Amino acid sequence: MDKKILIPLFNDDVAPRFDLATDVLLVEIKSNSDYYERVIVLPQASADDLCALATSANADAVICGGIGDEHYQYLTWKEITVFDDVIGPVKKILEAHKNAALSAGMNFYNA
Amino acid sequence: MTSRYKTCYLVGVKNDNTYLVSGLLNQQFLLPDLLNEVPVGIAVLDINGNIEVVNRTWQTITGAEPDSMVGLKCMLALRCDYCFKGCPVMASKADFNPISVDADIIDRSRIKIPIRLTVAPIFSKDNKLSGFVETIQDIRQVAELSSTASKAYSLGGLIGTSSQMVKVFSMIPSIAATDSSVLITGETGTGKDVLAEAVHNASDRAGSPFIKVNCGALPETLLESELFGHVKGAFTGAHENRPGRIKLAHNGSFFLTEIGDLPLSLQVKLLSFLDDKEIHPLGSSVGFKADVRVIVATHRNLKQMVIDKSFRADLLFRLNVVHLHLPPLRERGEDILLLKNHFLKDYCTKFNKKIKGFTRKTAKIISAYHFPGNVRELRNIVEYAVNFCDREYIGTEHLPAYLTEQDILRPVMESAKTLPDHAPQKEYSPAENWDHAEKRMIMDALVNSGGRKGEAAKRLGWSRSTFWRKMNKHSINR
After folding, report:
1. What b/e readout covers A22-51, taking b as 16+ CB neighbours within 10 angstroms?
2. Cβ distance of B105 and A73 shorter than 8 Å
3. Which residues in chain B touch residue A87, judged by CB atoms under 8 angstroms apart?
4. B84–A20: do the CB atoms touch at under 8 Å?
5. What ipTM does this complex have?
6. Check: CATH 3.30.450.20 for B38-142?
7. DSSP string for B323-349
8. Three-class DSSP category at A23
9. If one looks up domain B154-327 in CATH, what number appears?
10. Which candidate in A9, A10, A17 is best for mutational testing of the B interface (most B CBs within 10 A)?
11. Beta bridge partners of B407
12. Cβ neighbour number for residue B14 with a 10 Å cutoff
């Protein structure tokens, strides 16, 4: 089944703060393991806008650093899996997600 | 200067995860041990802005595990908004004057915490940049105080002029000056948590952590590890050392709320801690002497629980050194008026409304109500009314339905001679409360709007997010 993942970016890493990220990576993983990546640049940082983007893009998961509880609960309510407190380069994180080895709180710089 | 360096020569020596400081007081110290005694969060960064060492307060404020943070870029560990707003360390500036700014972080519990951040470069004795030192202070109390500072008849968030409350206020300073355990009792919604924080803030420990644990919120096994900590490998899933909340409260106050829900096995362990002030993390043979002031609160009758053998008598004697009782709102007379106006002002500011007050009839209904949920219920009623009121004065129609539908209304209505003849009073069910009323309103709105949440929210005059939050609160299935 196709999957969509939304990752707020800071350079090549997951953004440390969900509410302060202006660049977002939207990854579509096809059932045949093909990846389609798209970077979206937001006009300003806003957690509300990111939540709206995640829901409108039908994201299945959000991978982020620090996120406020209200937005976390909102995304969870929308049945979007949130992997928060994740630290590290996006490439490594996506690889871990592909191998079903990703969980909240993982630090890929210590791995 | 040179002679000073000769007499007090500090050498940072990396030894596994510790740094040895030599020459200070002619002794050798471990740098983290020194920093841990400072009640301000401190992180030492290398010249690239990577974390070298953090102290215990830094860990308490951020909630991050220091072991996994060492070597990380500061912005990844601290998650401060200032990192994105021109922090000189992140911009790789070497030469800047120490800065002090108000900022915010998101801690590991997903709470946004306002902090005061200072960053300063560290230079070696030959004036070469060696790294940076960063300090953080939790300024939630300051932020709250600044908004409540001008309020009369209040102490640390508690408001009241009734004799019972004045008695409590007069006791706080003298209780705060000691380190005795405090037991706070009172019905639900009377402000036990606020009082505990007021005692902490009035004490000499005000600048140190105030750590709160709800005994009823966690299962027994988790609660033990949460309170006393554990060492790596103590049990399956213990991947790293965890200090425990009591250790985090070192030099501060430790507040156990709903102590009546503490399991008997942990009551013994808490008693042992209160006796020798030493905690032993799960799986560790090394104890830690924690200097904490213990404050506990409950809405239960602990004496009755002792008789029922669900609470240890010796623990009750230990905790019941100073006993503060918060009276229920219905016994506080004029305080209802004071609190009602206080909350009205508060919510008008929050919701940007211009409401002048309550109509006479509304005020009478509120004063006559018996408030089983106490101050919390009064606050909810005012919040509800401010949400619904589109006039200058809050009328009866803006109050939650359960207030105007119950027996209590009858004498008020009769005295006001406004009771319509044709409207039979709905019987008040004693089991009904504010939560039920709110849930029923949501359900009614959903039914009337055919399950469309947007429309239901509109009907209630709430925003979609408020509606969503309330649905969540009442566990209404989506």
Report:
1. bebbbbbbeeeeeeeeeeeeeeebebeebb
2. no
3. 72, 76
4. yes
5. 0.92
6. yes
7. EEEEPPGGGSTTHHHHHHHHHHHHHHH
8. strand
9. 3.40.50.300
10. A17
11. none
12. 11
The answer to whether B106 contacts A107, with C-beta atoms less than 8 Å apart, is: no
Q: Kindly give the confidence (pLDDT) of every residue in chain B, 478 residues in length, as a single tens digit, with 9 standing for 90 and above.
A: 334 433 334 333 344 445 777 777 777 777 777 788 888 999 999 988 899 889 889 988 999 887 888 889 999 999 999 988 888 888 777 777 788 888 999 999 999 999 999 999 888 888 888 889 999 998 887 766 555 544 545 666 788 888 888 888 888 888 888 889 999 999 999 999 989 988 998 888 887 888 999 988 888 878 888 888 888 888 877 777 888 889 888 888 999 999 999 988 889 988 998 888 888 888 888 888 888 999 999 999 999 999 999 999 999 999 988 999 999 998 888 888 888 988 998 898 888 888 888 998 898 888 888 898 999 999 999 999 999 888 889 988 899 888 877 554 444 444 444 334 333 333 344 445 677 778 888 888 888 888 888 888 888 888 888 888 888 888 886 5
On whether residue A23 sits in a domain, the answer given is yes
Name the residue range of residue A92's domain. 3-98
Q: Which residues contact B103 (CB under 8 A, 6 or more apart)?
A: B80, B81, B82, B85, B114, B115, B116, B117
CATH number for the domain harbouring residue A83: 3.30.420.130
- Which residue in this structure is represented by tokens 């009314």? B385
Geometric angle at alpha carbon A20, from A17 and A21, rounded to 5°: 85
Interface of B with A (CB under 8 A): 68, 71-72, 75-76, 79, 81, 83-84, 105-112, 465, 468, 472, 478
Q: Is residue A111 in a domain?
A: no
- Where does B177-298 have alpha helices with state H? 192-202, 220-228, 245-248, 264-276
Sign of CA dihedral B31, B35, B41, B47: negative
Report the alpha-carbon distance of residue B248 to residue B245 in Å, rounded: 5
The residue in chain B having the minimum alpha-carbon distance to the alpha carbon of residue A48 is: B465
For residues B109 and B63, give the distance between their C-alpha atoms in angstroms, rounded to a whole number. 7
Contact (CB<8Å) B75/A16: yes
Are B246 and B236 a contacting pair, CB within 8 Å? no
Distances (CA, A) of B360 to B364, B378, B393, B446: 6, 17, 10, 33
> What is the count of structural domains for chain A?
1
Report yes or no on A106 lying in a domain. no
Q: Which CATH class is domain B334-431?
A: mainly alpha
- Establish if A108 belongs to a structural domain: no
Domain boundaries, chain B: 38-142, 154-327, 334-431, 433-478
CA distance A43 to A64: 19
Cβ of B110 within 8 Å of Cβ of A17? The answer is: no
Q: Which CATH number fits domain B433-478: 3.40.1000, 1.10.150, 2.60.120, 1.10.10?
A: 1.10.10
Count of CB pairs separated by less than 8 Å, A with B = 49
